[in-house]
Specification:
Bound molecules: alpha-D-glucopyranose
Order of helices and strands: HEHHHEHEHHEHHEEHEHEEEEEEEE
Radius of gyration: 24 Å
CATH superfamily of the largest domain: Glycosidases
Largest sheet: 7 strands, parallel
Helix content: 10-25%
Amino acid sequence: MSSYVTKKTPGDTAWFTRDRFGMFIHWGLYAMPARHEWIKTREMISEEHYDKYFKYFNPDLYDARDWARQAKAAGMKYAVFTTKHHEGFCMWDSAYTDYKCTNTPAGRDLVREYVDAFRAEGLRVGFYYSLIDWHHPEFPIDMLHPRREDADAYEQSKDRDVKKYAEYMRNQVTELLTNYGKIDILWFDFSYSGDKGKGDKSWMKGKGKDDWESEKLIALARELQPGVIIDNRTEIEQDIFTPEQFQPVEWVRHKETGELVNWEACQTFSGSWGYYRDEQTWKSPEMLIRMLVNTVAIGGNLLMNVGPTSRGYLDYRAEEALKVYADWMKYHSRAIYGCTQAEPEFTAPADCRFTQSADGKRLYIHLFAYPFAHLQIPGLGGKVDYAQFLNDGSELRFSDGKLEHFGEALPEQENLLVIYLPPVKPNTIVPVIELFLK
Ligand code: GLC
């Protein structure tokens, strides 16, 4: 058994740390301007103009089953869908607002279709719900708000009652956790109580758990869906830490206690969460696979994001990226699912990453650079029963202690494992060697 133990938390994380790989979906009105999901506040777009998106939002090509099939093919086991992002627009038929998809030309409950389709493909279902809301009339204007430079709006906003907004959130979360069956993840986003406004707005305050009434919000979620996994962004720690747009280089630890925690890196195919037509920094296939491997190799999950177009389909670049995962995962998922960081006694050689099955019996060597002829691994000699390439299950010969035929040239090394490799790299981005340990 793996010797790594993480800090205990209230939600059911057993499936989560086994499944390892999920799909994030950022979809909302911001798919229409198609230049980042924060566009309303970045460009301080007027309500009048933003209403145009509401007026014309028509995802006529939305086929959640197609998304679900692509997610599944990519090896993703769960998904997290933006039910409401910071713009405040609701992707389901909420009884607590008119600002929802059913009042646009879309005319359908988009969350419902997502839930049904992903579940039908056997994926677990999660909801992202934004704590920030740039549309709600009781959400006080702050330094992240699109109306932050509008003195009149700010003046009037002083009468806004964040308590009413907190209640609105509880009502909506109740809908989401009551009307859609079992929900596996609830992903709140985010708190910024330490932030202040800039320059002459430095008295503006951010928001956090007191504004969201996070304790009540979480208690409610736990009551409605006891096993649900909740992230840490309400400013009250729950089940998972969520590093975003950077990759940890070692297993994430609790800041105060130093304990290992359950964590999930969330990342984008290109530099935006929402669909961004002209953004060009799409990650290479190599980078995509390495990010997944690097994550699992240090005990984490990867939540990879797609930003569907406003017409409701996945842009060709997103489809290609998903296909990269599909091609690799088809043969290598065994080195990901149910795997974690290798036991501390094993150290990966240069250009390699290790993952190990949770029962400890199989060790996977991910070859980021393909070496010539031999892979030498100190520390593993005498411990391996059988070795093969994972992509085609073809045997790999190995020897313990020394490099055969070159024995004189190199001193014998106790505990050295030498694996003999063919000169031609298997036809896959990152080949994986599967070692069955004694
Ligand atoms: C953020 C951003 C955001 C995105 C999220 C995903 O904090 O506000 O747009 O939804 O991170 O992790």
